[in-house]
Amino acid sequence: MVSTDKSILDKDLGKVETIQAGKRDPALLARKLAFAGGFLLVILGLTVSNIIPVGGSYWIMVAAVIGAYMAMNIGANDVANTMGPTVGSGTLTVIQALILAAVCNLAGAIIAGGDVVSTVSKDIIDISVIQSADVFIWAMVAALLAAAFWVNFATWVGAPVSTTHSIVGGVMGAGIAAAGFVAVNWPVMGKIAASWVISPVLGGVLAAIILFAIKTLILFKDDMIEASRKWVPVFVALMASIFTVYLMMKGLKRIYRADPALLMVVGVVVFFLSWCILRPVIRKASEGIENKRGAVGRLFRIPLIFAAGLLAFANGANDVSNAVGPLAGIISAVESGGITSKAGAPIWILLIGGVGIGLGIYLFGMKLMQTVGKKITRLNIIRAYAVALSAGTTVIIASALGLPVSSTHVAIGGVFGVGFLREYLANNGNGAGGRGAGNGIAVDLTAYDNGDEAAVSKPVSSKKLKKARKRKLVRRNYFLTIIAAWIVTVPCAALLGALFFFTLRGIMLP
């Protein structure tokens, strides 16, 4: 029944907020910081002792440590994209998700991180206007440090931001400080600014469409078991197809670049093969389960885990360049005395990035994973599945159209999308398969979402009904905080990049 004392959102989310700022263990935090510091000292020691053959320059030593620090911050922040919904839905425990994310990100960084990386993220500055290799080195060190500081701050306040946009901002600010505004490729920056809107909106709309389709075709049916036998293989096969293409486009692009025609053929073949294989599997798995939403939702559990792992793999393959790209450029500039837009990335550089991302995930990824998975809106397995499927689909569509998108913005947009859809359905009479408040019947959404078909109450008064329609199922304070963090990421990182560049130049020049 509808409560008049407490919002449904607070009921939903209050039960799952088990980690709060006032309850953190200071000793545990100290141990984590000590472990992270130990990792940075190991990188420093390896560089200084030339166990890693880096040429012996102190700039390489400094950049390696900052790159490792950046990698840990990438892991701590980006884990929310792939694992937050999985944890929030109860599909994986926090520890299971942290381990899966760390392993898959490390594998992506090492296997598919590429032996050549861009030294200047997104080609946002023209390296030809940089005066010398020394100035380029100072700019790249400043950019790395700026991005790492900003992502660290965002993680601390609980805001999932784009690590790519952070390094873009750092490079832009350092580039302007080094060579003026003429150094910036402003059309590219315009596309990046447009992605602030494109990424979350597209991700949210697709997630809402996918969730509504699952509700309409399966959850709103009287016989959900039979409906699931027909449609679950289709949805899972669709995920298999999309994520195969996604992996080829994003996760493996540095070691193999497939043409669009091949991607289309592979996607279609994988869909039909998966559908044929999954039909008997789903039929068998559905035998004996209850005709309830919660029971049907568990049919999506294994595909959701695979999706989270593949997203983490692709993130590792792509985001490692945010940490090691400038480092590779610095090494190239030190060894050759010149400036290049592409540089070799030997295995030890990828190891720094991959291990750093994995450690950041395991040591510091819990906070944002809890925020995305449990504090924005209530997620179950089907909603988390919609978020994951929309993330892969959005990146594929955007890449095909040549639009720059952020995986962070896409994933968080998907969470908001399913939350706002749930809110719309609840307030317009469709929150419970067409038996919601719009029909004069109030529904305990928390119980109903957990599979309790008896959650539909008797008709209530028009006053209570009107109040029920105003339930908020997405926390607006988190929504506004995250949007604000996205908007200020590039400017703040740019200001930090310029500040660090001027500081370094002041130290180095007599």
Annotation keywords:
single chain, 510 residues, mainly alpha, two-stranded antiparallel sheet, two-stranded antiparallel ribbon, 72% helix, elongated, disordered N terminus
Question: Could you explain the architecture of this structure?
Answer:
With 510 residues, the protein is mainly alpha-helical. It has one domain (8-428, 469-508). The chain has 18 helices and 4 strands. The protein has helices at residues 8-14, 26-48, 58-88, 94-112, 133-157, 163-179, 186-219, 224-251, 260-285, 293-297, 301-336, 347-364, 366-375, 381-401, 407-427, 445-449, 462-468, 476-508; strands at residues 116-118, 342-344, 441-443, 456-459. A two-stranded antiparallel ribbon has the order 1-2. Strands 3-4 form a two-stranded antiparallel sheet. Helix 6 runs parallel beside helix 18 and helix 11 crosses helix 12 (347-364).
Task: Briefly characterize the structure.
This protein is mainly alpha-helical. It has helices at 8-14, 26-48, 58-88, 94-112, 133-157, 163-179, 186-219, 224-251, 260-285, 293-297, 301-336, 347-364, 366-375, 381-401, 407-427, 445-449, 462-468, 476-508; strands at 116-118, 342-344, 441-443, 456-459. The strands form two sheets. Strands 1-2 form a two-stranded antiparallel ribbon. Strands 3-4 form a two-stranded antiparallel ribbon.
